[in-house]
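Q: A small favour: would you put together sequence and structure tokens for a protein?
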Amino acid sequence: MHLREITDDNREAVRALRVRRDQKQFVASVSKSLKEAAKTPEANPWYRAVYRGDEPVGFVMLSWKPPAGPFRGRHFIWRLLVDKRYQKRGIGREALALIVALVRADGGTELLTSYEPGDGEPWPFYRKFGFEPTGEIDDGEIVLRLALPTG
């Protein structure tokens, strides 16, 4: 599994990735995510397609150490999406492990994300990976933190 830049060659295939209907309230589409990234350059968006072999199976977008705002200077997972056809195969966990490795390589000591609470929320997934609530709320979402100890 690897992360790949989104280019003209793969953009449509990546934009076609979809979560299950019951997950749509928690995860915006790839198209909406790319539009948000373009509209908010101050968030320092960094995004990639998640590939298994030659097949796009997911999408990830981070706010990569933005220079301002509530997450200034921190790595924040803005979107993590695994296509409904590929869920329950460990792809989300593997993608998260790749992101953690990149953040660590960048000198990061923590990784943040947030989620909207509700039936079917992604909290159990993040909890299993080691994320913990920070006590912060951002735009109605619960902020989570994964400590990345050095060494």
